[in-house]
């Protein structure tokens, strides 16, 4: 399995528009972070988790010519705002499968109503999707793999993480119920969000992320959904435990 980090930044991305913060001005390419998303590939399958405002750029940078579907973690704009840019895939492949909690699918329907209208009402250039509702404690098939949704909390908003075999992707976590932790046993790689050094109401900070990684105990962990306030990539990564890494845009890992 191959995982590509399409974006590793928090909701505004790094640099932030108009910011003169030293991390926003950094010349280290690892300090430039598009909005969070990963591409997961195995055998002949290719799925993407979340489709934020940088989706088009992420597809172009990685020369992606086909996707089998998009999984959504939750409805916030930094995870969904790029949905219109599935059009090239729709024109080439037909209806694109999308997966998410019922609440997330309904939110997309409201905000992208022209995608969800009946075929006879649809503007000819609009894309079409096939919707798949994800329910907690119900695994589902993508290709030949059983995917396990993992329920986490983003302050008081429900968010799904996804486990693909020995790989799990959790973003926008603040808390996780103890009962969900058993779904994360025996991982080779865990990706989890770490926003910044200071605590935040709806995101794990670095200290909390490291503590949760210790409880889950994967072989390796990568941090994502990073704000400029976490600091410079090189400096932060130098102080992480041996099996924990900072993800950066376009990093690929083999699992
Ligand atoms: Zn987010």
TrEMBL record:
GO terms for molecular function: hydrolase activity. SMART domains: Lactamase_B (SM00849). It holds the Pfam family Lactamase_B_2. Residues 34-225 form the Metallo-beta-lactamase domain. Keywords: Hydrolase. PANTHER family: HYDROLASE C777.06C-RELATED, HYDROLASE C777.06C-RELATED-RELATED. This is Metal-dependent hydrolase. The lineage of its organism: Bacteria, Pseudomonadati, Bacteroidota, Flavobacteriia, Flavobacteriales.
């Amino acid at each position: 399995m191959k995982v590509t980090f399409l974006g590793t930044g928090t909701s505004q991305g790094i640099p932030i528009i108009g910011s003169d913060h030293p991390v926003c001005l950094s010349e280290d390419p690892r300090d430039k972070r598009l909005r969070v998303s990963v591409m997961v590939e195995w055998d002949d399958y290719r799925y993407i988790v979340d489709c934020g405002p940088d989706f088009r750029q992420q597809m172009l940078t990685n020369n992606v010519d086909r996707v089998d579907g998009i999984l959504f973690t939750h409805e916030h704009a930094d995870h969904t705002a790029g949905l219109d840019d599935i059009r090239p895939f729709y024109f080439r492949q037909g209806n694109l499968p999308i997966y998410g909690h019922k609440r997330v699918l309904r939110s997309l329907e409201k905000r992208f109503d022209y995608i969800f209208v009946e075929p006879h009402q649809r503007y000819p250039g609009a894309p079409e999707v096939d919707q798949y509702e994800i329910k907690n404690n119900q695994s589902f098939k993508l290709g030949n793999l059983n995917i396990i949704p993992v329920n986490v909390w983003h302050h008081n908003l429900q968010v799904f993480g996804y486990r693909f075999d020995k790989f799990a992707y959790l973003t926008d976590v603040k808390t996780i119920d103890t009962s969900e932790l058993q779904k994360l046993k025996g991982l080779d790689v865990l990706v989890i969000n770490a926003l910044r050094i200071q605590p935040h109401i709806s995101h794990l900070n670095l200290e909390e992320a490291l503590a949760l990684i210790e409880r889950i105990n994967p072989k390796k962990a990568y941090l994502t959904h990073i704000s400029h306030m976490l600091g410079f990539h090189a400096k932060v990564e130098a102080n992480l435990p041996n099996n924990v890494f900072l993800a950066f845009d376009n990093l690929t890992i083999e699992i």
